[in-house]
Amino acid sequence: MWPSMKVVLVSAFFCISAIQCKSRNGDLVVCPRGGCILGTVLPGHQRPYEAFLGVPYAKPPVGKLRFRSPLPVEPWYPTIWNGTFSRSTCIQKIYASWLTVSTGEEDCLYMNIYRPMRKKTRKHLPVIVLITGGGFSIGTGNNVDFSPDYIMNRKDIILVVLQHRLGVFGYLCSGTTASQGNFGLKDQQLALEWIRDNIETFGGNSQLVTLLGQGSGCAAVMMHMMNAKSSLLFHQVILQSGSLAHWALLKNPKSHFKRQARYAGIVDYKSLTTKEIVSKLRKVDAEILRESSDRFKFWHFDHLVNYRPCIEKETWKDPFLTVNPYVAWANGTYYPKPILITLHCYFRF
């Protein structure tokens, strides 16, 4: 095994500064900052395309990092990251008719990157970054549920599909600095920073990034347009079947937080500070936290989206949303971008 290991390490070393390369056994390898990634070729609908699956952009948000802003991923050089398969979806519970399915893991901050079969060209392609919908509580970026086959019939774009924290893991807001909330939005922002710094390595144009939101992803995109830091990371937007509807903002986070503590089994929550409650919630089993969402009122539409973004204070550390998004949008106090608004239709034949 030692000689083959030396071949892999040497291949990684010579790939670090290259846009793309082939390892000695012919596998596709791309080397952004932090380490090289082994890609794969998928058959596609009309033509094959290249895929780099399960690319990490943040440290796993587990343990002490639960209910905290995401941290950049640790470099994995000289190891070559295996990007030939999607990683786990973010932890969630899916409701479909009479059937409910619990799935996912907390360690889920990955993205899938798709590009046309590369030819010998230096042209950098425009980039589409997809933020999926699901009421801030469900959604996946894997290549089965969000297959890129049809869009990759085109030869002139790169598609990136993000995963970000959902439900209580992504949107626990205490109304204090103990758990500021908006972690899912902050995950998206960190992913956009990673894309800005690395997408040219994949042949993408970091100066032509379209942010595409679907469903609750539309509300997320609109909130990114209100964030000065985020606004520098994309250049135009597509809003597909969603908006800043009444369900897109948590209006009473302190009350919601106390109920969350009670539903998760924190028996003495009434006598504890928010910091103490969050400390206990970090130790609660992830499955119990996920199941606790079922105890919120469900069949009223406003409560169908139980976990949502919240307004943070400007004095807090790295706040994401510090203004009422409805007021900001109505007053035009956001960072305007070229925008396309579309309807997301489903057809059955």
From TrEMBL:
It comes from the Eukaryota. The keyword Transport does not apply. Residues 33-342 form the Carboxylesterase type B domain. SUPFAM superfamilies: alpha/beta-Hydrolases. Keywords: Glycoprotein. This is Carboxylesterase type B domain-containing protein. It comes from Phlebotomus papatasi (Sandfly).
